[in-house]
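Postdoc handover notes: sequence design on the structure in folder B. Input tokens:
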């Protein structure tokens, strides 16, 4: 049921989620960002005015689906200052204007083709998202079962909302085309790093992969531990299970033929076991200690991931990745996986500093 109140209460999580998802949509629309050119004003507007000669229904569907969450988040965010109908109308217009702006910017990217059909589909997606926000979005996100669960199980405050946003980005990164389980911050594709610290061998790589998985899992556990003071292990188990489900879905959907268990390897199993066992005492540690250990584990996981040599199995596995309209999705998930350790490190630094100040002397 739609809310009957004129204004909604402010939510830090909605603000964080809107910023995060809007950034993801913008990058996906402009990927890749490494080559730019000036198309000329006439060409730019003529491309946007033309209806495309060739399109697929999957492109239409994905463009609508991509902007529906944006319309929903915009509406819920604007409900703080606007009544329901004006908020939904403004949200739909914002989504449409954002789409127009990004389509115009696509004219500077040689491999992207702006079109009026994309703008239309994005606007429809924004409209659907705004309608969902009026029907159930505010109820579910601010006052419904999810909100009640958040207030009952998690700690109050914007820091918990920031932690939930960081965890959401981590889950999104699991949709990426990589065989590294939970690993992020791979810099080898953009910078030249010194030689690897070990020679390649299947056993050695499995051990290093297990270390990366375990250390990454411990950093996630430290973030989850900052959100709740009870039943943190249950929440961690649920997040890890959902992450593995996303990994399996990616292997089934985006690889040809589908490989839902592409991530299942000895190193991943070792990392899950060790990381899960060590997470239990970490969750019970004092807040500053937990945040400090999580930060150290995060730094170590990124360092180890960039130290391990490339795997022939990894290279061969990526050959089965479906390209086409999933190309920008692959680049977007890769960017989130690359930048997530930085965001998580910033959160853990702030958490460590703030919890240390609140500890009794």
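Designed sequence:
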């Amino acid at each position: 049921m739609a809310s009957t109140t004129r204004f909604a209460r402010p939510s830090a999580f909605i603000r964080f989620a809107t910023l995060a998802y809007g950034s993801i949509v913008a990058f996906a629309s402009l990927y890749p960002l490494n080559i730019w050119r000036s198309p000329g004003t006439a060409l730019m507007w003529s491309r946007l005015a033309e209806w495309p000669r060739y399109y697929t229904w999957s492109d239409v569907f994905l463009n609508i689906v991509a902007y529906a969450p944006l319309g929903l988040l915009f509406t819920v965010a604007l409900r703080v200052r606007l009544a329901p109908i004006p908020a939904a109308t403004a949200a739909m217009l914002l989504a449409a204007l954002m789409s127009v702006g990004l389509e115009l910017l696509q004219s500077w990217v040689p491999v992207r083709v702006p079109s009026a059909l994309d703008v239309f589909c994005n606007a429809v997606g924004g409209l659907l998202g705004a309608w969902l926000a009026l029907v159930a979005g505010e109820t579910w996100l601010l006052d419904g079962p999810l909100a009640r669960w958040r207030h009952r199980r998690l700690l109050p405050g914007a820091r918990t909302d920031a932690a939930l946003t960081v965890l959401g980005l981590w889950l999104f990164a699991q949709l990426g085309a990589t065989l590294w389980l939970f690993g992020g911050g791979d810099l080898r594709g953009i910078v030249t790093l010194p030689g690897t610290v070990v020679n390649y061998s299947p056993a050695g790589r499995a051990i290093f992969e297990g270390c990366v998985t375990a250390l990454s899992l411990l950093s996630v556990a430290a973030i989850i531990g900052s959100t709740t003071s009870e039943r943190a292990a249950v929440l961690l188990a649920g997040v890890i299970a959902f992450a593995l489900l996303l990994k399996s879905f990616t292997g089934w959907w985006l690889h040809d033929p589908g490989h839902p268990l592409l991530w299942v390897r000895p190193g991943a199993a070792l990392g899950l076991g060790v990381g899960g066992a060590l997470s239990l005492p970490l969750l019970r540690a004092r807040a500053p200690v937990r945040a400090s250990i999580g930060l150290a584990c995060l730094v170590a996981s990124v360092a180890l991931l960039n130290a391990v040599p490339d795997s022939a199995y990894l290279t061969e596995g990526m050959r089965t990745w479906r390209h086409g309209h999933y190309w920008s999705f692959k680049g977007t998930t890769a960017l989130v996986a690359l930048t997530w350790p930085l965001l998580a490190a910033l959160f853990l630094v702030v958490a460590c500093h703030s919890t240390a100040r609140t500890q009794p002397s």
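Context for whoever picks this up: The longest helix spans residues 327-358. Don't rerun without checking with the PI first.
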